[in-house]
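Consider this:
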Amino acid sequence: MMNRKNKVFLFTAFCVLVAAFVYMGWQKAESQPKGLPDFNNLSKPLADLQPGEGNALVAWVVSRLKGEPNQPPFPERLRKDAEPRLCFITLADGKGGRMVAVGSGWGLLGALEQAAGFLSKDSLSKDFRWVKLDIVKGAQSLKDLDLGKSLGFDSSLFGIAAEGKPNKALLPEELSLAALESGKGISLDLANRLLRETRVGQKAQEIARSTRKYAVFNTISYFGDGKSSWPLFRGNREWKAYSETDIDLALDRAGKYLARAVKDDGRFVYEYKPYRGREVPEYNILRHAGTVFAMMELYGVRKDPEVRKAAERAIGYLLRQVRGGSIAGKPVKFVVEQGEVKLGGNGLAALALAEYARVTGNRKYDDVMRGLGEWILATQDANGRFKVHKQSFPLGRVSSFQSEYYPGEAIFALMRIYGLTGEKKWLDGADAGARYQLKVFSLLDDKRLPHDHWLLYGLNEVHRKRPRPEFVDGAMRFARVIIQAQHTRENQPQPDWDGGYYKPPRSAPTATRMEGLNSAYALARDFGRGADAKQIRWSIEKGTGFLLRMQVGPEIAMYCQDPEASLGGFRESLARASIRVDYVQHSISALLRRPK
């Protein structure tokens, strides 16, 4: 039997052991934040996802929301994660409906489970078209936020959480939605409306204009359209690689955008703010004509009857702006807008009508096309100079205004009229105009040389009918200068600037340069400039990827006031979402003509 002394010893040892376990448990509990994580207590940043993990997470979330009995596996590496995590799941119906849940948990699985659980109680979870995951990678706590002033960070890359609270957090895309027109600050009303109208689960709280403490966070983002999923950067699909199928889809969407944009009277919705669903009340007949040209180019390839029907309405409006007159006793026609006649207006209108005849075989507009061309020839000097770029109507007072691009438009138009009629005078005018322009530009150094895509269009066509060495040499010089100005991964740290032009890079300048390079490539390929052709093609591939980034796909449309009206348009830049018809026009022409 155990004596009294041994019993006391064993009891004391047991008490010490229990006390040790209690102390260790208390220490462990004290080492973890109480409750669920928020933006103030995130610790270890989430590592970049490995190939396939993002797609697996999207599939898991979709299956979880649909209540499927056999869910796809959660990535094993991420299942083991036990760090404090935050995530957003956004669902959209493609018609303007959008709901967002913020999930918080210990480990990514816990955070996603919570967000999916919140959303599963909303009716949209049973009828969503698009899903987007934003997994918080890391956050930094800062002080003194004033939403009425410019934010001190790139709001296209970072979100904010007032007071570090998940129910006061806005994603980068939501900051864009709430951005003031001036670009300085955030509309408090819009920001709070977003939180009230889209959040499920944790009840959203109002954000004050100023707060002493807030967090800035970045995310790892993936989007799913029900068929596939892909990573996002700055809210855009990355398009590091693309196929002919991708280009075809982009062209189809762009054509449908323009077809929808033509009103009953033939005018376009000239500029559209997709986040607000608002049309800008401005117009430009030159861009109207150029857009018709691109629509007919697209129709010639894809034969979409809706594109043709809409283009014909737009041609009707264009023809109503044409007036007749005479120069030196010869009848001419010209496009008038706000009491002005412009060389570029006549050139682009003639191009639109010539392209209509070329792709449809219908020559009903030939008389108008010829009249527009006659005005161009009548205002051209014998040395090829286009001496009238702008004049008043009806007085005919010639302005001193000179455009760098109007002559190229006129040369290209004259060649297209020549292609339809075979009359030598059109070729003579284009030939003389091209030679004159090259002489003018030969006096400029490379830094001052305009990136004249219209002249490159013309040079490609004139050289094939009246070859001259200076035409190919001039085209290669333009191509070299354009390529040197392009953003690449090697000269620009922002990965999504790759292939673009300007700071921040914009769609129209990139598209026009790709149009010019397409023409230069055709000359280099067909006339013994193989090394130039290879370099030009590389640049075109970069530019094409950038243009795909600029198109409104479903990942952008889900944030638009009217997703269906916005889908397929091309935004102004990575920083501005406005869609204008010429952004779409030039992007269509660039994508259509790219080397296959």
Summary: The chain has a mean pLDDT of 93. The chain has 20 helices and 16 strands.
